[in-house]
Amino acid sequence: MSAANDKTPHPRTQAVHHGSRRSQYGEMAEAIFLTQGFVYDSAEAAEARFHHAGPDEFIYARYGNPTSRMFEDRIAALEGTEDAFATASGMAAVNGALFAMCKPGDHVVAARALFGSCLYVLELLARFGVEVSYVDGTDLEQWRTAIRPGTRAVFFETVSNPTLEVIDLRAVADLAHAAGATVVVDNVFATPVFSRAVEQGADVVVYSATKHMDGGGRALAGVICGTRHFVREVVEPYLKHTGGAISPFHAWIMLNGLQTMDLRVRAQAESAAAVAAALHGHPRLSRVIYPGLPDHPQHQLAMAQMGSGGTMIAFEVAGGKDAAFAVLNRLRIIRISNNLGDAKSIATHPATTTHQRLSDADKAHLGITPGLVRLSVGLEDARDLIDDLVQALG
Ligand SMILES: *Cc1c(COP(=O)(O)O)cnc(C)c1O
After folding, report:
1. Burial of 27 (0-12, 13-18, 19+ CB in 10 A)
2. How many domains does the chain fold into?
3. In CA terms, which of 53, 180, 229, 314 is 20 to 30 Å from 239?
4. Whole domain around residue 110: which residue ranges?
5. SS3 for 111?
6. Using a 6 Å cutoff on CB, does residue 311 contact ligand 1?
7. Do 210 and 136 fall within a single domain?
8. What's the CATH number where 33 sits?
9. Does residue 90's CB lie within 6 angstroms of at least one atom of ligand 1?
10. Mean of the per-residue pLDDT values of the chain
11. How does residue 5 score in pLDDT terms, banded at 50, 70 and 90?
């Protein structure tokens, strides 16, 4: 996407304009086509469209809709993929991408450090006869050992939830491609702003749009980005028949979110860096995890891969669960909740909420300790966030 040479607009310009479709009224803002169906001029026209719908012809909103298509085109342009399919949630996107491509007997290699619901989707794949091998995503030797000729796909979060492990996308993609496997990444924590996932070897990039794309914690949505063949021939048939389509209203919210995403995410990441620096070395904390801090185990990789530490921080309160809860309960500006990427800063206790389902052994293995708090840094003034955290730490 070198804008200077081929005159492709820069991402911030595309985020405002790309994919717009205007009706005969020439409306300025993107219209919400809140319609499930479309009328045909004749029975023959209906027959022809069911036989083959052109790129701007629609049949039923479960298959596609003009507002949803605007969102798909816009995010595909930002991500640098040929096409995208929008879904009802991030999990519909993860489920759609993996189930659409796998069949019984296939082999998938996944990083162990995943969002709880992503782990559940992998358990479902195993139930339907897909063999799933789990690896420590930061250990290239484990990927090398687990990937074998004929492996169908590898799947991982480029930055893991909640412990912010950064996975070497290019190195894992090289191993996967050598075996003929498709590289599917959940890129939520990296954000589309800091992602160069396709350039670095990802074949399929999946997002929960609920997070940074909405940016205001209003609506659920997701998206699968990939080649036109993968999106229209593999993913679309699966999703249009199993019902994971996005609501046109939510697609409209996400279109608006994309317009300001670059500004928001950069501001949030800048604040996150300031907050992480302020927390680092605090006597009540046994650990501060932020990929932008030089002592993060994959700091160099994070900066090379994303150019930023991102909008998420994790820290471990010394004294375990009771101490962590006491800190959470003293927060005045930062809210206790479980979304992320929101304009409002949000603190989460993963061990008892988002990752509650995991066994104690799995939590320990993933570093989800009783004292761990995940912080999504929002759009407030970083000075107020630091003050809030410092007073809560006592
Ligand atoms: C939130 C999240 C999801 C699921 O997205 P929903 O929109 O809530 O369905 C998947 N992966 C990661 C990393 C997430 O943070």
Report:
1. exposed
2. 2
3. 180
4. 4-257
5. strand
6. no
7. yes
8. 3.40.640.10
9. yes
10. 96
11. low
Q: What is the residue-wise DSSP string for 64-83?
A: --HHHHHHHHHHHHHHT-SE
Alpha-carbon distances, residue 184 vs 28, 187, 329 (angstroms): 36, 9, 38
Please, are residues 204 and 183 in contact by the beta-carbon 8 Å criterion?
yes
Whole-angstrom CA distances from 239 to 97, 100, 216, 244 are 9, 8, 26, 5
For tokens 């027959």, the residue is 47
- 313 Cβ closer than 6 Å to some ligand 1 atom: no
Question: How do residues 144-171 score in pLDDT, each as one tens digit?
Answer: 999 999 999 999 999 999 999 999 999 9
Q: What are the two backbone dihedrals, phi and then psi, of residue 145, each rounded to the nearest 5 degrees?
A: -70, -40
Which of 257, 289, 316 is where one domain is finished? 257
Which residues touch 315 (CB under 8 Å, ≥6 apart)? 279, 285, 287, 288, 289, 372, 373, 375
Quick check: 271 and 88 in contact, CB under 8 A?
no
- To test the pocket of ligand 1, the residue of 91, 213, 220 to mutate (highest count of ligand atoms within 8 Å of its CB) is 91
Length of the chain: 394
